[in-house]
Model the fold of this input.
Amino acid sequence: MSAADLQAITLTLRLAFISTLILLALSLPLAWWLSQTRSRLRVFCEALIALPLVLPPTVLGFYLLLALGPNGPIGGTLERLGLTHLAFSFTGLVIGSVIYSLPFAVQPLQNAFAQIDRRLLDASACLRAKPLDRFVSIVLPLSKRGFLTAAVLSFAHTIGEFGVVLMIGGNIPGETQVVSIAIYDHVEGLNYGAANQLSLWLLGFSLVVLMLVYGFNRQGGMLRT
Amino acid sequence: MSLIISVAFQRDSFALDVNACLPTSGITAIFGPSGCGKTTLLRAVAGLEEQVSGSILFNGDTWLTAQSAMPAWQRPVGMVFQTPSLFPHLTVAGNLQYARKRATQRQDSLSVERITQLTGIGELLSRKPDQLSGGQQQRVAIARALVGCPALLLMDEPLANLDGGARHELLLLLRQIHIELDIPILYVSHQLDEVVQLADHLMFMQNGQGKLVDGLQAQLNSERGRQLSGGANVVFVQPCDTQQITNMQVLQVGEQKLQIPDPGYAVDRLLIYANDISMSREAWADSSITNQLSVQLESIEPATHQAEVFLKLRLGSQYLLARITRQSAARLQLQAGQQLIAHVKAVALR
Done:
């Protein structure tokens, strides 16, 4: 495997790892709010979060490119503050990945939260547990599986991402060239051997990750944790 | 020392309106038919019903005013729900520790060791809730509420989901808690026998309304009490030391004696339904009913059914209500002030 390919793999893993962490941090409060609120805003928020599921990644990528680029509202503001815009940068990729994979993190968590028996929270409130304490001591342990599913799906989905990355990241080795782009690059250059090697690696990796998750879930089912 | 409640709440066609001063000693039962708002009231006291407005004062502390509501986690209550609501990811010991760790003041009289022993869950400590029977789960739920050292224990029909055997054992446990621990309990139930066996004070609730709290006997004998209970008497009794009969417990009401099949614990009160009392002018020598009490007829009062009357009978310092037909009353030529014999079928805890 060439040095460039290895670099693409490390970059992809780094992107997936950082995106997953941000996604989980973002999705915990968001999913909790969605699972508890009676606000009319809920439907709108749910639809907004689910958009990446139906939109072609190019649409999302296109608007992100405009927003993060030197003339966009975000990129332009950064430029005026003496910073650099975010198009074709790793940070831009992270932002794109987070938005693109948001439904995969929010929905499993929201489902897990919605299934928690309200009476358990009432019981813990009557045992003098404060709201945050209730969340940490009751809600989180009981939605362990939803949490794991959210993490793995976010991670895997970021690794498998192509369209958004291509639009806002381009193809800069070491900065924005992820595995999926590198494969596309090899195919364009008719370098099928290299494309095959990277593809096989991605295939194997994804299979192993998913098997680990399903294995864990099955074991959990038997031990009823 | 009291719990002063003045709350209102409206949801769809249901309206809750309770103004009452409840004593904070012993067991105060809130009794009424299903759907009368008992549970909502209890949840309001616990701080779990956010939409309830009014005021709640507990021993001088303000829990609810028009301006502010103390959140549930700040109120020194313990709550036992109809369903045990144990934390499924923790063991029994874990559930107890959860409560103990968060207790604001830890009393030695409510230590985990003592409560574990009292509730008889010592064998279960390492188990997870889903490995327990319904009765065991409710025991743990009671223990969990107790080790949190509440100043007031709230119980919302804790026996409603249990079958006969488990229910009986839990009822005995509650009596024991009442006797051994000095914790005021608000006990919500629609089962008359539970209330009668446990309560010191009683409040009736109907259609979301609840006002008067009084002693158990006085409430049962009141007009409303007769309506809701269908005429039930509680008679407080003492054990009789001078006489012993195999398999029976001999009890005393004043100078008079009663006997019941030994239920296996020291009986201090009996439940006697007004229908289970029959009257005669003289004592019967040959009757299967062994319990014959000499009573004085205080008054004859109308019953819900037109063909029946309630007889208010004085039994020492206590009162008994008997329900008989008008026809029988006429045949016996009953008049206030008469000395009569009441033949009773008394039951203890079942």
Notes: The domain at 234-344 of chain B is CATH 2.40.50.100 (OB fold (Dihydrolipoamide Acetyltransferase, E2P)). The CA atoms of residues 25 and 184 of chain B lie 5 Å apart.
